[in-house]
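$ fold --in a.seq
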Amino acid sequence: MLYGMLFGGVSFTQEKDIPDQSEKVIFITGGTRGIGYQTALPLAKKNPAHIYISARSQTTADKALANIKSEVPSAKVSFLPCDLADFESVQACAREFLNREKRLDLLFLNAGIMVAPAGKTKQGYEIQFGTNHIGHFLLTKLLLPTLEQTASRPGTDVRIVSVSSIAHYFAPGPGIVFSELKTEMSSWLSMRRYGQSKLANILFAKQLAKQLNDKDSKILAVSIHPGVVDTGLYEYVEKKPVLSVALNIARMMMIFLMNAKEGANSQLWAATAPRATEKDTKSCCSKSNGKVVNGEFYTPIGSPGQAGKLTYNDGLAKKLWEWTEEEVKDYIV
């Protein structure tokens, strides 16, 4: 993979490097297609107790479930409807999951929209920020008690993996434009709005990791860039002439563009590679030892240190957390 050759990373193959997942319960948002589906499929082959995939479309879900079952007849996999742009839908999804399970080992915050037309979520937030960040924040908060309970059990390895993007570099100058988040932000380029939401994904994972670490939780939280993946995420890009031309050139050259299976490797690695110990993080070589560091942002595969300056702004991360928590507080019951 040229991306990995240029920017470093570790060797990773799904068949060899994903360990047995026996007893684990796994939740993947956006798990019905693209890298979400390609995350669910190899995990289903590793004997998990149950995999839950969420998305908006029942039709797409039925196809995904059938495909997984055809490859892994013994797989226990279920669909949970969830529209991340609607707090009530997120709440209902979490409630249904908690009615079924008392355990959660891996949470993939994978779903998202990219360069969408200006619009607002059901509760009135900029559509990309509301979907990519706020919806996932609410879902995580609702599932966190179960994640923590699971992490307290001996022999467990609980992780939260947030799918961000190198496109966080396109975020507006201040990073998060709090004063406009309850508008369509139509005066901003769609890529700027997308970059803002992807920056929020990284800041969220970092702040979550910090808060969990402060209370000695064993949960690991990281964010990743999957690579430039040729999936349905580009449906809006293809409608924009300039961006569409750039995408088609990339497709023809096949330089940085990955298929969905390759794109899933970054988050699969983050969810299953060995954890970094305290000794590892203090080592001079800790950035390249192939172990997962809590709170880190990784580019493919397992390569840290590619995040923009704003991702290291602890004050911004704290402000974003507090702002989001206030916005969703009425739905955390």
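$ fold --in b.seq
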Amino acid sequence: VLLNNEGYVAEATGDNIFVVRKGVLITPPIYVGLLEGVTRNCVMDLARKRGIEVKETLFTRMDMYTADECFLTGTAAEVIPAVKYDGRVIGTGKPGEITKTLIQDYRDYVKNAGDGAQI
């Protein structure tokens, strides 16, 4: 996990990062120094369509330690659950319900992209 100059979480190496806390999907805002990922934006849209609240806000390593869920997104990675950070278990140590739902929604989205991608 990469931190910006102020010590806030920015992204993983090549992937965007999300945490879930109390049912809210949280990801760092673009201005912290991360690349605005296509997969990141897609997952945020999919979450909103499900009625999941999405917040772009600053968070720290401590917020990752205490998150209910965590996952990474990227073009090659797609959506990958993260169950440990710095050797500490995140949530239950298994992919959470929101993570699993968004993995499936993203796979369905990609599978149906045969009709043409929205860019």
